[in-house]
Task: inverse folding
């Protein structure tokens, strides 16, 4: 199982690439809709994250994610609450 810090970094870096947005901008404003998040970029992010992390996402659950932490929570369930 991937640890929280590694999952968060991978999500941030992947989203940064897909959204063509600096990671620092994603950290400062983690709401995906604020960064040109659309259906195509969502699918690209899903595919990239599945490959990089070796996970399989449920498409409905993935599409329900609204923030960077929502995506991290899908990879490492329960860990964000324990480290908040």
Result:
């Amino acid at each position: 199982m991937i640890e929280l810090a590694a999952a968060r970094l991978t999500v941030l870096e992947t989203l940064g690439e897909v959204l063509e947005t600096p990671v620092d901008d994603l950290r400062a404003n983690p709401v995906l809709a604020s960064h040109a998040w659309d259906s195509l970029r969502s699918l690209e992010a899903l595919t990239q994250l599945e490959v990089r992390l070796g996970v399989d996402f449920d498409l409905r659950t993935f599409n329900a994610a609204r923030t960077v932490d929502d995506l991290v929570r899908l990879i490492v369930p329960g860990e964000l609450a324990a480290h908040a």
About this structure: Residues 32 and 38 are 9 Å apart (CA to CA). The helical segments are 4-19, 23-28, 39-53, 59-64, 68-75, 79-82.
